[in-house]
Amino acid sequence: MNELTTVQLIIRTLPELPFGAKYKCVFGNATPIDAAVTSNGLACPTPDIEHRPKIPQNEDHVYVSLSVHSSETNKDFVSRNFAFYDCSKHTTCHSCIMSEWACNWCIYDNRCTHDTSVCQRTIISSENNPTKLLNHGIGHCPRIRRYNEPILLPNNVPKELELEVENLPHLLPGHTGFQCIVSIEVANMILPAREESNHYIVCDKTTYSYEEDIGEYNVSVQVVWNHKHYIDTITITLYKCEILGSHREHADCSLCITRNSIYQCTWCGNSCSYSESCLENPVTECPKPRIDMIKPLSGPIEGGTLVTIEGSNLGLRVEEVIGKIRIGDVPCDIVDFEVSVSITCRTGASNVSNAAPVIVENDAGYTESSVLFSYKNVKLQGIYPSIGPVSGGTQLAIGGQHLNIGSSVTAYLDELPCSVNRTQTSNSRLICITPKTNGSRLIHMLTVVIDNSNRTLYGDLFNYTADPTIMEIKPLKSFVSGGRMITVHGTNLHTIQKPLMKLYYGNEIEPINFTSCIVLNSNQMECPSPAINKKYIDIIQATKSQTSTPQIAMKVGFVMDNVETMHDLEKYFNPPRTHMLFVEDPHVYQFHNRIKSYKGDPLVIEGENLIRASDESDVVVTIGTQPCNVTSLTMQQLLCTPPEIQPANTDENGVQIEDINLPLVVVKIGKNLRFPIGYLHYDLMRNYNFPPEAIAGIAAGTFFLVLIFMIVLVMYRRRSTKAERI
């Protein structure tokens, strides 16, 4: 890269040039250079260094096109790639010697170069260097010998590290010695090292340790000389006996002493330690078994349950525990064994329902579990629902007793396998998903197999009916926030438990959104339209729609168990009937100053886009908890009739409003849009009615006056009569 030279181009048939014309060589984008004609072709001087392209980082070369043309036409008549390379990009002997260029490694200069004249003493030519020096190829690089087995060092134990090496340089006066650079986790440790017999590098004795809670940890060891002169890197393995000899964070004697002897781990006291660090007499016999976990804890009385027992000191060899695992008095046959820490066995049959401890015995003794394994009698009682589509996918609930026991469960509808979902299984309910059938049929037999138990239920249990169909979807217009109630008409809709409505855009496979539908009867269901807010904005921005009323069409699909025809309705209906148009959300304005007076006329509420994708049935207005009956709806206004008496100061859910003694007015459009627009103050003309007490008083006074008048009148009449007689 930094050398000026002349490139010889072998061109067998050079075209003849007119008088005065010259051949030009062009290196990439550099200025054309005059070429000299040779007996074999042309000779092209390379461009000046400042006119050459830069080599990318982490690369040792860059390719440019080298072309030849005439000064008369400036048209290329021959072209090929030409590489500018830089050997100094390589910093180790290995990468230098394995490069594809004519590079050389200067051992005592610790550099890679094309020019051997700058090297002192030993030089190694690269594998691809046509000039083969005395030391040629990768076999002459200083390096650490590769080991077939990993190099192991115990954690936190002082140790020397001995590495076998080849082709070590002889140190000269002024050179510093060898060093080992050990990289452990985020730290580098630099250790002095010495050479032995010209074949070994021994890193000084030190303690190697890592923090991570794992049994083995790989670390990198780099050997250098004269501070920065690189030799090679090797990976060694640090290990912790206390983790290698433990299971689930519990020290395990059997696991410790059966570890590969290369680790030199031994049981020391109550833990697993490196043998040289143990200050006590090492143990050769382990304690009796310890049981930490049993799974599952119940199974059918017929047996056949795979029981996994985990713990410590469960045995050094499988032969040690064969025939010695029991549940009470019932043998449990071993099917899998992991030294000391795990045993899997298959339960035998029990005559009755009972509970008993798990017993593990080996050469060190025996142990009974503190928890009991229960044998139980499985019973079936019924299934729900009793109907589903022939395409399958119905979630069938099987009722009974002890349905969540054992290690394996299968279910069959007649001869059809029903896929069991154990994550939803309980003691009294087993969930399975019905398979597909070829046509309508009635299932007469349900079979549930739990391990060795086999239970059967007979009767007219489940009816496979024709798949549901979709005949009409209306309305096919919604606002982008969704929640508008969409009515779907079809057939056999009641056979689906949890139908979903999904929306797709264009040819995209993944749905934009979905909602859950409610089945009303076999021919009708209701689905709130899914929201598409983010997708709507993305599409409008991408299409740069200039219309004031943009609308986006979405494909409608349904999830109805495993009925595939519902996923893409376009295959079965024309697109206008399967696309839903989405428009901008309606908006309702708040009251001026947040409070509005009500004087008896219909309440007027202002807004925009109120009927672009909604009608009166989609709008609900509440004043406090009381409805305000909608009587009129236009694009910019809705009218409603408030209740006669002012409701209490709450919102629509009855939550009391603390800061004002007025009811909150809320407008809801669909299920998703809610507009709290302010408070309503009743300002009606009052009729002044007398209280009942006053009315009663007036009536009593009037009656008293009439009574007095009648008495006076009677007395007057008597006196008049007496006077006439005299």
Automatic annotation (TrEMBL):
CDD domains: IPT_PCSR. It is found in: Cell membrane. The chain crosses the membrane at residues 694-716. Its main location: membrane. It holds the Pfam family TIG. Belongs to the plexin family. PANTHER family: PLEXIN, PLEXIN-B. This is Plexin-B. It comes from Eumeta variegata (Bagworm moth). The gene is PlexB.
